[in-house]
């Protein structure tokens, strides 16, 4: 009599085989390096017991180069649905134990399926990237499927929140796919991000530069600006995902989640009274102003090491998520330059996609002068910032703490760009330029002929400040809604935000605007 194979035993055996990925030896090597496996990363990311895997039995269809003899269940990526702090998400994690996490045709198609599910279900998408680009053994089949993946990710952009975690080397077209996300979190120790392989980069091959120098977390945090945040370790990366998602709705047609806070809506911010120096040329830390105003003094800053002359990040006011954009007088006197303009414009558009109100704190003396900026296209890049503010339809609130000069004043959510609530502190200065510069231009002949040029210059500067150098001129013209005491800023912003939550803006139909990229 023939022995019968138990189908359940066969299923259990296949599931175990799928979880082994590239084998125990490779898994041990990954753990020894200080990294976690794909399954361990997803378990760390999501609520216990909530992960439902799909396509665990998918295998490569390639027959060349012995791939048919070496194909592995799952094909190097783990994908499925789960919960994070009770919220539903779709997620995937590349498995470095299978062909170094490289992306073959079925690997990419598996991610495409989970991206399609995220778009249909209108749920956030979290991708954990750890792989060496496209699988050379599969040639253009791998590249074609990667192109399909990019197409799907771009379809998701602005519709559902997307977060990429780079926890190992991510190369080539895979790096492009990961960078499409709204936020890129890079692991400090092992995260590396390249478009060209370090093996093909002359500086690495010939000059002794390391792969970390070329595309490590520190470089992407401070120089390229690709890293939204750097995670100290893999557990920290998972915590960052949860914190970011707590500010976002599931999709673009939903409102962000409101969280209860014990911080009173009527709290006075007494520390702000003396925060801005009397000398208008002295720096101060705008982050302290932001922290003093927002709920529980909690501010999640993004890209803190990149373009430090502007500060962006998330906070809450009265429990409602807000996006913060603030000039930083401590760095370059708060001037706008190319990097700061692009950094802020991208953030503004992200918030606008997902109905997160914008709160801007303005102390900006202008755009940074110089040949590097002019030749680098500061006009075009500065226009991106102005465009992003003007295009945004979410509630916009603006506080001028000190300087708001010239084109930079216009580009920082001014009333003329249809910002909803604009106020200034008594220290605010709204003008075409600073008094000294204005006097030098307007009265240059008068100063040249004066018997005592320095005294005459001082008198003219004081006269100019009296006429143009305070916020009341703008308030008289309706370009400011009010001039407020600094300690009342939190109260005023919360009161202004409440009626704006139902704000809707009708726009004439068009395919899309043409932002000056």
How would you summarize what this structure contains?
This protein has 517 residues and is of the alpha/beta class. It has helices at residues 7-20, 24-32, 38-45, 67-70, 105-121, 140-156, 173-179, 202-207, 211-215, 217-224, 234-245, 286-293, 338-353, 371-375, 378-391, 406-411, 435-442, 444-449, 453-468, 472-476, 489-500; strands at residues 52-54, 77-84, 87-94, 125-131, 162-171, 183-187, 192-194, 229-231, 300-302, 310-317, 320-327, 358-364, 396-405, 421-424, 429-431, 482-483.
Structural notes for this entry:
The protein has 517 residues and is of the alpha/beta class. The protein contains 21 helices and 16 strands. The protein has helices at 7-20, 24-32, 38-45, 67-70, 105-121, 140-156, 173-179, 202-207, 211-215, 217-224, 234-245, 286-293, 338-353, 371-375, 378-391, 406-411, 435-442, 444-449, 453-468, 472-476, 489-500; strands spanning 52-54, 77-84, 87-94, 125-131, 162-171, 183-187, 192-194, 229-231, 300-302, 310-317, 320-327, 358-364, 396-405, 421-424, 429-431, 482-483. Strands 1, 2, 3, 4, 5, 6, 7 and 8 form an 8-stranded mixed β-sheet that branches. Strands 9, 10, 11, 12, 13, 14, 15 and 16 form an 8-stranded mixed β-sheet that branches. Helix 6 runs parallel beside helix 7 (173-179) and helix 13 packs parallel to helix 15 (378-391). The longest helix is centred in the N-terminal third of the chain and has 17 residues, at 105-121. The chain starts with 6 loop residues before the first helix and ends in a 17-residue tail after the last helix.
